[in-house]
Design goal:
Helix 4 crosses helix 5. By secondary structure, the chain is mainly α. The protein is globular and about 75 Å long. It contains 16 helices and no strands.
Amino acid sequence: MGAGQAKVIQESVAQLSQANISPSNEEFWKRFYSASLTQLDLLTHATTKELLKIRQNNTKNFAVLVVQLVARLRRVLSDKNTPNDLQEVMNAIRLLTRALPVAFEGSVNDGFEETLFWKNTIPGHINDTKISSTTSDATQAANQEGEDPIIPPAPVAEPEPTPFQKSFDSVLKSNKSIGRQLLDCLMSLLFFPGLTTVSFTESVEERSKLADIPLKYGWAPGVGVAQTAPYNSAGYLDSNRREILMCILCATSYSMYIPPSLVETAAKNRWLEELVTRRRASTNVLLYSMINVIIRYDPVGWGVPYNHSLFFDVPSGPLKGQGELISGQVSCLDAFSTYL
């Protein structure tokens, strides 16, 4: 990324903690997952310290940022996508991986996590219907007391919402919680053509009707999978899978942010509950993929001493993420067995 673009993202991050930004400001919000950003750019300019500052100084902006990122993930699942779209989605996932721990920190005290992710409400957001209701009540009171009536301002025709605004609103107005929407998107993206798996032979319409994603799109052959689609183990696919798995792990780690003194009385981890008790089209193929990747991994490789210092072993990234995810799921299955 050039120096000019680096300055833009730096200024945008600073603006979030200083001024309220309208959710409909498409040009502004798209800066945070622009295809021109790299992973290093996000690590450098959207640091945990900066995100925590935004959450403390302007909670509303921080919540809007999270919803915008979830909206971006939802759009990619329903649109025809270009390579730039897929890059934007990966940047949104990277930023979510950094933002989720910040959202969880202190939520036991201020209820931020519960309010945003499970009640679909942006903290500090003003409800327009309440404003108009207040004006009407004031007008009626003036009429009853014989005073000159308060004439409300003439209604101004609002412009038609843009597709970007509609996308944002649909996340908040969905009958599914934002937490569930996020997990649904991440699970779907683990087996998404061009991003984490090879192109599907089924059409988009046929794919939407599948109860289960075919096992041939699994990440490795082995248990339950005789053969996977060719070229399904490319380095960039493994890298994208690793980052999505890390985001899922961050989402399900909410219990880590509960003070030890409150662990016994705190409510159960709803993120883990959503993950392990709800069946999705990717459930079977993900389970087989994680088992087969772990079983087939050869840590010795060429047998070169200190090979980790010579080159980056791409498969080891998803392997660690899958091992941790399986461990987390198995550990909570017994606790949630009554829901299964």
